[in-house]
Amino acid sequence: MPVITVERKILEKNDQLATQNRQLFAEKHITVFNLLSSPGSGKTTLLEKLLPMLAESRCGVVEGDLQTDRDAQRIAALNVPVVQIVTNGGCHLDAGLVRDALTNLDLDTIRLLFIENVGNLVCPAGYDLGEQKKIVIISTTEGDDKPLKYTTMFRAARVCIINKMDLLPWTDFNIETVKRNALQINPDLQFFTVSAKTGTGMQELSAWFKSQLYK
Ligand code: MG
Ligand code: ZN
Known about the structure:
binds magnesium ion; alpha/beta; binds zinc ion; Rossmann fold
């Protein structure tokens, strides 16, 4: 099937660019996380709460969005360096888009870079951006069977953040079920349970991010 060939070539090209990004990040001693989730899980709100807690870690943010720069404006309001990639409907970021975005950031002043991917649990899993770790975010208003439906994403992620813990009492979401389902796909997955809104679990999460910095 020609379609499969084209897709493989695109991914090969992406992997080459991702390797270049990774080399650049290593040279500059920047720790990079690729944040992935479905729309509405609270990625940007999580960043809004985390960034002030990580102020000494000198953060930067690359925002991916389908159409707007609304998320980047929220980050810029915190005086954190941010670049917006508008994909014009494209459903994932790729390594080339990230490379181009990096020219707008002063990499010598950044130690921790967050890339907020387009809200989508499917194809972003296949695109290496050069990050150290992919982090998947799921919220308690989603189904706790998501790891079983989006296996590629949960296999690719190293960390799973369960957000909106404040809403847990009003949902059928079961923490033990989602963890069991996710561990079945990826036995090494590490979990954090947080509420970006109330601050629950955010100290532990920010401490973990600090532990990931280059010494
Ligand atoms: Mg967002
Ligand atoms: Zn896509």
